[in-house]
Design a protein that fits this description.
Helix content is about 75%, strand content about 0%. By secondary structure, the chain is mainly alpha-helical. Its main location: membrane.
Length: about 450
């Protein structure tokens, strides 16, 4: 079988991937948590969205600078390898393949199912929701594996669809709220006073889930036409669009329902907000668009998940690289890698249910939130990459070599500190699991070196 991926995506598809992978679930899913973390203090919540967005933009810009210099198979892995060497690149690729991609993909399948259950009135924590989650995972896997071109078109279509409810809420919700006084009320009323620093840290970590995913777009740089030019444009443009849309949506939402309702209702509160603006029928139709947008995000993350272990195997590393590094000559997809990615998604979906939804929870000390902590850990992995960029790339301008990487570094450190405040003892529990996965990766690396 062939082991090379062909260039098949254009600039618009790349921007759609950046925007489509990120927008679609987190801004809906985490709006409730941001409000609860800040006690319903809307200006503090907006500040959290701004901080999270600026961290994303700084990191994306720094990777965009690196994208003009490196172009191989899987963006983040190549950048790690170019900056820190093959060993570091291997462990970053291993983390992305076994933890990062499948945890986020499994959570997105559950989020999509959760909104579907809200639409049809099913229990969002029961068996129906988990069954729908599994169906969405398998369907997304099949679409990405059997027809990546159709998957790309689906990504573009869902990106356009998902912007409809966001823009409608941002524009009409804000106008409605200013006329009715709801926006003023929500901006000036704090539901439950909280410690400002604690609330801000917790809220910023929550926004990290909503903002995460843009790095997945770097996984297609070998499949992107004129990648050195188009990938930086896609990263920078896409991340700016995302932050603007999120903040405008958040303000629009404040014009339709009270913070108390959103804090208590979550997804049901968001559905009520749309119904208040567009009547029951119109609100339900737009809520369907929200579900489609979540599925678009799932599709984009599955794109990275199916290529996760391939990025390791293509370097002749990890378990069975001869098998997992194969590319199907008909679909031009790493099918064996895709199957492993699906199995990992299933594993992490079971973990997410047992650690966060089951009553009582299944894993004792190891019950941690797999929707946030893997994201924070990747910010930690960015730090040495940014440091080495400042050290090695001497021909860059001071702005590109020092200023923006330094901002990205500060953002990464802020995110790590915020996670410690927000998640407490869940952080060491997660780090133990993280270390175990890295030890397994080290075993396979040593086995290949001694073979």
């Amino acid at each position: 079988m062939n082991t090379e991926l062909k260039e098949k995506f254009g600039l618009f598809t790349a921007i759609a991937l950046v925007v489509g992978i990120v927008i679609g679930s987190g801004v809906f899913f985490k709006a409730e948590k941001v409000l609860n973390a800040t006690g319903g203090d809307l200006p503090l919540g907006i500040l959290a969205w701004i901080i999270g967005g600026l961290i994303m933009i700084a990191c994306a810009y720094t990777f965009a600078v690196m994208a003009t210099r490196y172009q191989y198979v899987n963006g983040i892995v190549d950048y790690a390898e170019a900056a820190m060497g093959s060993t570091y690149g291997y462990y970053v690729g291993w983390f992305m393949a076994l933890i990062y991609y499948p945890t986020l993909t499994s959570v997105l399948a559950w989020v999509s199912a959760r909104y579907t259950c809200v639409l049809f009135g099913f229990d969002i924590t029961g068996g129906a929701c988990m069954t729908i989650s599994c169906f969405f995972l398998i369907a997304s896997f099949a679409l990405n594996t059997l027809s990546p071109v159709i998957s790309g078109k689906f990504q573009v279509a869902t990106t356009i669809i998902k912007l409809i409810p966001l823009f409608l809420m941002a524009i009409i919700g804000t106008i409605f709220g200013l006329k009715s006084g709801m926006t003023t009320y929500n901006f000036t009323t704090v539901v439950t006073p909280v410690d400002t620093s604690q609330g801000l840290f917790t809220a910023v970590v929550a926004t990290a889930f909503a903002y995460e995913g843009w790095i997945v777009a770097t996984s297609i740089n070998a499949e992107l036409k004129d990648a050195k030019k188009n990938l930086p444009i896609a990263l920078v443009c896409g991340t700016f669009i995302i932050m603007a849309v999120y903040i405008l949506y958040y303000v629009g939402l404040a014009g339709t329902v009270t913070n108390e309702v959103m804090m208590a209702g979550g997804e049901a509160g968001a559905k009520l907000a749309f119904e208040n603006l567009f009547t029951s029928v119109g609100g339900t139709l737009i809520f369907v668009f929200v579900i489609i947008s979540c599925l678009g995000t799932l599709n984009g993350l599955m794109l990275g998940c199916t290529r996760g272990i391939y990025s390791v195997a293509s370097r002749k590393q990890g378990p069975a690289p001869e098998i997992l590094g194969q590319v199907d000559p008909v679909t031009n997809m790493p099918v064996n890698s895709s199957v492993v990615g699906l199995l990992l998604c299933g594993f992490w979906l079971v973990f997410f249910f047992g650690a966060n939804l089951a009553d009582p929870k299944w894993f004792g000390f190891f019950n941690f939130d797999s929707s946030e902590l893997p994201i924070v850990s990747i910010y930690g992995l960015y730090i040495p990459i940014f440091v080495m960029l400042m050290k090695k790339e001497k021909d860059l301008s001071p702005f590109k070599r020092f200023f923006m990487p330094a901002l990205a570094l500060l953002g990464c450190v802020f995110m790590i500190i915020a996670a410690c405040f927000s998640h407490g003892w869940s952080v060491p529990a997660y780090l133990i699991v993280f270390a175990l996965f890295m030890l397994v990766g080290g075993f396979f690396r040593r086995k290949r070196e001694t073979a």
